[in-house]
Amino acid sequence: MATESSPVLVRPTQEEDWEILKTVRLAALRDSPTAFGLSYATAAAYSEQQWRDRASHQTQPQFLVATHRGQAVGLIGDSINPSGEYNLIAMWVHPTCRGMGIAGLLVNTIQARAVERGHRRIVLSVSPDNAHAVGLYRRHGFKFLPEWEPLASQPGVNVQKMEWTSGR
Questions:
Q1: What is the DSSP string of the chain?
Q2: Can you give the pLDDT at residue 59?
Q3: CATH fold of the domain at 8-165
Q4: What residues of the chain score a pLDDT lower than 70?
């Protein structure tokens, strides 16, 4: 939710944003370690060049950062998996900014990007026990699929696939 006095801006990262991406991504991994397929230890070991490549979209996924009052407060990514599916990944909002509509803005942005790129379907994986995330995704039209897999960074956590399809 953006207001005239304090808009939330969402934009793709660029190479010069590598430190912002690193800071936000590591904060997300520390805050919610069982929500992501990447572990904090793995991400923390990335070199500056690896962060630069991620920020500049030289590699997949592509990340977008949400800023509020000049501070990076949220992150989301999109990628195409080997099966050709458009994926929503790495969704996170700083705890002090939750409830402000930033998560919805991030999801809407990915939905628009998918449609602009000719994709009518987005998939994501989430733990059904993560009630806040599931509620967010359901409000944005995602539905559970009967597909489960262990979370790569936490093999004891199983995630379920959700999908959204465009009405266009």
A1: ---SSS-EEEEE--GGGHHHHHHHHHHHHHH-GGG-SS-HHHHHT--HHHHHHHHHTSSS-EEEEEEETTEEEEEEEEEE-TTS-EEEEEEEE-GGGTTSSHHHHHHHHHHHHHHHTT--EEEEEE-TT-HHHHHHHHHTT-EEEEEEEEETTEEEEEEEEEEEE---
A2: 79
A3: Aminopeptidase (3.40.630)
A4: 1-5, 168
